[in-house]
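Journal club prep, notes for RB
We'll compare a predicted complex against what the paper describes. Inputs for the pyridoxal-5'-phosphate case:
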Amino acid sequence: MNTRQDDIPLFRDHPALKKCFPLVSLAVLPTPVERLEHIGSRLRIGNLYIKRDDLTGAVYGGNKVRKLEFILGHVLQTRSREVMTVGFAGSNHALATAIYANQVGLKSTSLLMPQANACYVRRNLLAGYYYGARLCHYKTLEHLCIGIIGQHMRGIATNGAVTTFIPAGGSCPLGILGYVNAAMELKDQILAGQLPEPDLLYVPLGSMGTSAGLILGFKAVGLKTKVCPIRVIEESMASPKQMLRLIRDTAKLLHVSDSTFPRVDISENDLNIRNDFLGEGYARFSEKGVHAAALLKQEANIVFNGTYSAKALSALVDDARKELLTGKTVLFWNTYNSRDLSAATGNVDYHDLPKAFYRYFQEDVQPLDRTSCANHEGI
Ligand SMILES: *Cc1c(COP(=O)(O)O)cnc(C)c1O
């Protein structure tokens, strides 16, 4: 393993944490911050910046890599040599887990539920298989819960192995540490003059770990940046109450592990969840999202994902059009991988997957997912 953990801001500022949380180095950090001058002035935003978490990993980027450094680092300290996680069929988290578990020598299983079809669902399924994940289909959440127990039993029965369960999106306190660190990384970049302190930060809200870590981290380091989590999943899966609990559990974990980490008090008023850009539901692309993504693709050549980042971007564009962002410094936190997976996906035939996944290849993608599935591009 390499020694990059020596210089992550979280451990630099709170050295006792390093002993409690052995991370495995997967990410290339810090990720760049870039100014989007042209599109910013077109939208009449004072200053528009993007945080390039699409580049967190050399093989596969996106926001799950920072979480997995802590989660897989922990697993490697235990006797467990197998991880299991859950998500929807096109889950970026399941794919990131497959890729990085494989990289550090752990087996992985993904328990996946049905979702609306899109090109990226096909890509992620093929890539997950390529990187050695066992892919299992579950029709409903109830089936999946029973499946988790079944998979555990199977692991014990077949090789006596202990399987570590990773929650959806890697959004447990351990994973969230990755985004507390990311908040501190941004503060370093502000202090280094790479961008002014943002007034507002736009980020998609899925399993809530990314927003939770940023909110907690900003508060801990005294940044005033207001995080605007844009809901991309139904409230039954991601409620303010659950989010507050995640933040408080993470804050407690940090303070108990290293008392130099400040006690922070977060209330529901700090969450600012925006519910009006979900459209028809999780993984159902929205017109606004698709338009916003097309605008940025054309102006800045950035690829967006219709389930996540395009919806968060549509909130930013909408606010700009209402002139709410005039004179403001705005940061868009890009959570979607931009590394090319075609070398992996080109090596797999969908017939190699379990039959339940064939439908994503045999049925059309949803009408708003117009981008050709062949060009390996986002949305
Ligand atoms: C998982 C994911 C999110 C949501 O992040 P959470 O930490 O789950 O809230 C946002 N964007 C992309 C591209 C993702 O894959």
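Talking point for the session: The chain has a mean pLDDT of 94.
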